Amino acid sequence: MITPQPTQPARLDAVIFDYNGVIGLQPTLPMWGELAELAGFRADQLEHFRTAFWSARERYDSGDLDDTAFWTAVLGHRPNPGLLERLRAVDTALWTRTDDRVVALLHRARQLDLPMVLLSNAPHPVSDALDASHWRPLMNDALYSARLGMNKPHPDTYRNALSATGVHDSGRVLFIDDRVDNCRAAASIGLRVLHYTGSPADIENQLHLTVAA
């Protein structure tokens, strides 16, 4: 776990949250299977499907590929409009389930008037769905890779998120993400970081510093 250095101030003035793997739950194997089947892959081709999916996902997340181009790359052929709509809907559903324990912590942080910003690698359909979620108003702002035109761990994604917090001192802003590479990139621009490994208590402990300050 990457934690704040002892020389850093205890007080936090804002928090930047990753979405998937922190607020959002990872897709289950049956959910992956449903999407693969819809895409025309057999059950024994699930890993082949996921390889094709992830090979094009970075460009989709950054906005370089639109929905049609992404699914054409995954399927190997252009989907008809009806199939494209279903693929988009099922894919979005994969990424929009939330961990109620973490959402509860967001409510507690909001009661403390702690500024919170969401920073997520997400394509346009997922971004739109997250903006419509019941917990989204808890965030002061939400930044998505498809709208920024770049993915984490590009340093400018963190600079944009820091600016959105309204805090000038990066050492007073905590960034929470489940990926080590994203945490390292955030730390490189001076943000305090928490590598999240699935325990909401870790977030709670970090936010307790704010309460005690």
Automatic annotation (TrEMBL):
Signal peptide: none
Tree of life domain: Bacteria
Gene3D superfamilies documented for this protein: HAD superfamily/HAD-like (3.40.50.1000)
Pfam families to which the protein is assigned, alphabetical: Hydrolase
InterPro entries: HAD-like_sf, HAD-SF_hydro_IA, HAD_sf
The protein, known as: ?-D-glucose-1-phosphatase
Protein species of origin: Nocardia otitidiscaviarum
